[in-house]
Amino acid sequence: MDIPRKGAARSRLIKRIVVAVIIAITVPAITIALRRLQPAAQSVERSTVWPDTVKRGEMIVQVRGLGTLVPEDILTIPATTDGRVVPQPLLAGTIVKPDTIILELTNPELQAALVDAEWQVKAAEAAYTDLKVRLESARLDQEAELASTQASYDQAKLTSDRDDALLKEGLTVEINARISKSRAEDLKNRYAIDKRRLDGSLESITAQLASQQTHTEQLRAAYDLKKSQVEALKVRAGSEGVLQQVMVDVGQRVAQGAPLAKVVQPWRLKAALQIQETQAKDVMIGQKCEIDTRNGIVKGKVTRIDPSVINGTRTVDAQILEPLPKGAVPDLSVEGTIELNRMKDVMYVGRPVFGQSESVVTLFKLGPDGKIATRTQVKFGRSSVTTIEVLEGLKVGDTVILSDMSAYDGQDRIELK
Fold first, then answer.
1. Given this structure, which CATH class describes domain 44-70+266-416?
2. How sure is the predictor about 4, in pLDDT bands with cuts at 50, 70 and 90?
3. The domain defined by 75-98+239-264 carries CATH number 2.40.50.100
4. Is the pLDDT of residue 27 over 70?
5. In sequence order, which ranges of 170-239 are alpha helices (DSSP H)?
6. In the chain, what are the domain boundaries?
7. How far apart, in Å, are the Cα atoms of 147 and each of 323, 412, 414?
């Protein structure tokens, strides 16, 4: 038979009260602790992220663009006359000299016109010679006539002087002296007239010969033009370099002025870079740049900025200041980096994947242990090709993740393993 102990009920009551108090205190505490406990950070392989440390110092502001090597001078050779391509032209890539024949044209009408012009020149030269002989013969006849008139005048003058002397001696009648004097005066006038006629004929001869000579020269100029046009049917390079392109085929008919070929000088190339229009606004003529030809890097400088925008980019020409490496040819793909500015004593970090100048982004910043990274808002300033200025949100020595973390947009913390 059980015997009730004194005080047992009271002890059980006390125990129940203590348990209830403990539960009343513990449950809220656990609830609060659970509420304050952060969710477990998602694990990320360390090898898959790209971290960088914030630094302070000089930051070089650059822009980068793809492009190609293009000749500084392109000589386009046009057709100087109509014609048809007859032999096989030289192939592109052939080294040429100024007198190298690239291709030949044929034009039967032009060649016939050349022969006709040649015979016209010969006929004009013969006509000039004939006219000169005839005019010279006529001049000689006039000179002979003048000489005869002069002889007659001299003889009549002597007769007049003789009769005048005889008249003074009374040995002849006055009428004879007057007749002799009149004849002498008549011959004197005729001599003067013939002399003026001869002088005038000399001027006429000069004028007629000059006119015929001018006509001959006109025909000769036309002949020389036809000759040069026929000679131009042999299309020459006109400059030392490399034949870049032949634009016609054998048998093709080309019109005057049509482009036939292009000659370039491969040792005089420049880089034509395509720069984003938002970045090209800071590019100025004279700025330094580096051209990566995939076979070496050469220095250059900006010489021209295209004012127009095509497909969101502007073309920037860069003169190459150093010898090009082997294999550098026109149309070779290159990459150019233009130096815009050097910023002194600024805080900067590597440029994130989605980091743009003058923007605010969120990055994962690593904690002191280097394992837990917390999402942090960062304000950026000017950007370069590989670096960007930090204005707010980070301090020197902080390490942030620059790679694309869009897969963790729903996470505020990650853990690197």
1. mainly beta
2. low
3. yes
4. no
5. 174-231
6. 44-70+266-416, 75-98+239-264, 108-231
7. 84, 130, 130
